[in-house]
Write a structure and sequence with these properties.
Blueprint: E1 3-6, E2 20-24, E3 27-33, E4 36-39, H1 47-54, E5 60-70, E6 73-79, H2 82-94, E7 98-109
Length: 110
């Protein structure tokens, strides 16, 4: 048996009341407080554990969003390739009328 200690998240019902959730692998056992250990209420699993086990491994791909201004008007372009993004940014940075180049990366489901 290997015990792990996890801090409860702000959405956990025992947040602020306990310091840690004590678990054996993925199965929660009890709570740790300042005064000692406290059993789980009604044997229910914490919300944090349920949320982490509910999400299977999902393949994601990056989506690059380039935001910029042309003569003061806001524009956006999206790229799936980092190479094309870098090439476009290099070209735009040489243009005097293109300003405020910003890149945002989002993870999309593959």
């Amino acid at each position: 048996m290997q015990l792990s200690y996890q801090k409860p998240g702000t959405d956990h019902p025992m947040y602020g009341k306990v310091e840690y959730i004590v678990a054996d692998g993925m199965q929660p056992i009890c709570y740790k407080t300042k005064d000692g250990y406290m059993p789980l209420e009604n044997g229910s699993a914490p919300v944090v554990e349920a949320a982490s086990s509910a999400q299977p491994d999902v393949e994601t791909k990056p989506l690059y969003v380039l935001s910029f201004k042309i003569n003061g008007e806001e524009e956006e372009m999206t790229f799936k390739s980092k190479k094309k993004l870098d090439k476009t940014m290099e070209e735009f940075s040489q243009k005097g009328y293109v300003t405020d180049l910003k890149t945002t990366v989002y993870q999309t489901v593959a």
